[in-house]
Design goal:
alpha+beta, 4-stranded antiparallel sheet, 4 strands, elongated
């Protein structure tokens, strides 16, 4: 992960090459009356067509659940075990980027699978 930005109340990370998602994740916190609100804003898309298929067939839902559980865990660790966690999803671009199909060569999932299949490997 590359830290793109950081200040007193937020920081933004960028996924590395080969990650199944290409995007940015911004973590921030702010006060809303007497409450502190923590949020994770994820701007992502699949890195390649294989990842696109995974997201289309359930990956987006699993990604949303992951971030909901992460924020609930953060709240619980800060003494708020029953925090309200909500998700808002906005699709910025519905187009498939088939011109990025060549990115499959950077896929960590594919490279790891090929490595595990090498002859002579324990």
């Amino acid at each position: 992960m590359l830290v793109l930005f950081a200040d007193d109340v937020s920081f933004t990370l960028m996924t590395p090459e080969g990650h199944m998602f290409a995007g940015w994740i911004t973590f921030s916190a702010f006060e809303d009356g007497d409450a502190v609100v923590a949020q994770a804003q994820v701007l992502m898309r699949a890195q390649d067509p294989i990842g696109e298929l995974g997201l289309t067939f359930g990956g987006h839902g699993k990604e949303n659940t992951f971030w909901e559980q992460t924020l609930a865990g953060l709240a619980a660790s800060l003494g708020v075990p029953d925090a309200v966690v909500s998700t808002q999803v906005v699709c910025v671009d519905r187009k498939r980027q088939w011109s990025r199909a060549k990115n499959v060569r950077h896929s960590v999932a594919i490279r790891s699978t090929l490595h595990l299949m090498k002859p002579g490997r324990r």
